[in-house]
Design brief:
Blueprint: E1 3-8, E2 11-16, H1 21-27, E3 51-54, E4 61-62, E5 73-75, H2 79-94, H3 110-117, E6 141-143, H4 153-161, E7 167-170, E8 177-180, H5 196-200, E9 206-208, H6 212-220, E10 225-230, H7 251-261, E11 265-268, H8 269-290, E12 296-297, H9 302-311, H10 325-340, E13 348-354, H11 358-364, E14 369-370, E15 373-374, E16 378-381, H12 382-391, H13 414-417, H14 424-438, E17 456-463, E18 466-474, H15 476-487, E19 495-499, H16 516-519, H17 524-538, H18 548-558, H19 564-570
Parallel strand pairs: 1-5, 10-11, 10-13, 12-19, 13-16, 18-19
Antiparallel strand pairs: 1-2, 3-4, 3-5, 6-9, 7-8, 14-15, 17-18
Amino acid sequence: MEKVTLTIDDIKVEVPKSYTILQAAKEASIDIPTLCYLKDVNEVGACRVCLVEIQGARALQASCVHPVAEGMVIKTNSKKVRDARKSNVELILSNHNRECLTCDRNNKCELQSLADQLGIREIPFEGEKIETVIDDKSHSIVRDPSKCILCGRCVSTCRNVQKIGILDFVNRGYNTQVAPAFDKSMADAPCIYCGQCIVACPVAALREKDHVERVWDAIDNEDVHVVVQTAPAVRAALGELFDLPIGTRVTGKMVAALKRLGFDKVYDTNFGADLTIMEEGHELLGRIQNGGTLPMITSCSPGWIRYCEFNYPEFIDNLSSCKSPHQMMGAIIKSYYAKKHNIDPKKIFVVSIMPCTSKKTEASREEMEVGGLRDVDAVLTTRELGKMIQQARIKFLELEDDQFDQDLLGDYTGAGVIFGATGGVMEAALRTVAEVLEGKSIENVEYKAVRGIEDIKEASLILGGMEVKVAVAHGTASAGKLLDMVKNGEKEYHFIEIMGCSGGCVCGGGQPHVDAKTLMDVDIRVERAKALYEEDEILEFRKSHENPQIIKLYDDFLGKPNSHKAHELLHTHYTKREKYATQEECSCGCKENC
């Protein structure tokens, strides 16, 4: 690898010739502020906050896009640089909605932090505030143009990472905004509500639809029995909201906090994940043995489901008919659990704590109810749970570890835990399917070929004398690539796992915000997944079909996997959705679907 030597703030640095000045400065432990920059996603130099002074250059340069060169001499902290950075941020703030105290990102806003670091105490310019309308029509995402700083991070994430492209810059000049094509609402766009745009946004121009007050109202209502369930990925990230290192597992403290908040029962969605494997695994076996539609594709990621309905409707018949784990759990709580505890199911309020913003939309789908009762009544993101803990003045880090309620739905296995990482659903399914096909207990339950963060992972296994081909994709860009190969006859599989977000649920759109600087150093997909695999390894049972309470559920209530009652409660269907042309597909300006 060819290298060059340059001098940054009187420090000699040797770096690869392919580096930018920003990367080179980082190698020398020199911090250059950024705002629009997002590693490998948005490297456009739009905000001009990362300006540096290069000896011999006529103007200051954006370090995030300017390549290094042999002998280059750079100053990152001259008066000229400091003044320029400060002026640029002041200009951004001049027409920004600065109601910080009531902002969703107060104390967690990258613009707010930058203004403080640069010593901005007043705004010498006062830009004209353009009239904006908050778009809160969707069940998952709220868009507030008054907070948008036009950094483009959400646009690049949607277009380049997810390969969906429903967000872009609309209008021109002073009236420029970021919005769906034709300035439509997020509710009317072919959005999958993955929330990766929220994760990418440095401010609060995009945020989740808040269910916190809805949940508080239920808890405070003495006539309502409130049951909460937590997805596996939440335990791997909640601690970050309380300044714990990324990937710290906080299962016990999370449960203790939920009990302090006043929920009547605290369960783990991992029970629902184990149930999903029982239903999905036997559905796969049925398709293989009876000539059903293959490859069968997982259905537990609602973002992926919407992506399929909009973009690949020809694969709808390939989707598993299983509801996702939290929806299954909700249906069981309002049937089996209600019957066992002699509670009117109409008085049960089910709350799901999820790492995902798309789960809010999923819970509102008309298919997600049985007998007129919604499976799930409210969905909180990991961030929203953090807010509730703070509102209740709970000292999270001082809590003694507690355990989930153990009656009826309290047991879970390691297979359920790993659902939160890409490849986890596949591995959990294989642990059960392998034993059914082999007809014996298998000791080695770790299928590491489907682990990791490669965009597409493949494996071929001999189970019960037959070859079973599987694949895993995470992020809709990878999903599209994989589905195209299947559609074109380039690949054949029996079973495919697809997650809507890169890294799987551990990096869902409802997880804690991580600033762009940290993302330069840490792959949060890897660190958060470690927490789940750690919990899997310490559990007594690591295969879904070994869960004692799952076995009892079938014996007492469901009968067997894929039974008539199981289909009534735990299965659903999906439908092709029409989409309008996105900004990328229709750029002629006619504002018609041409």
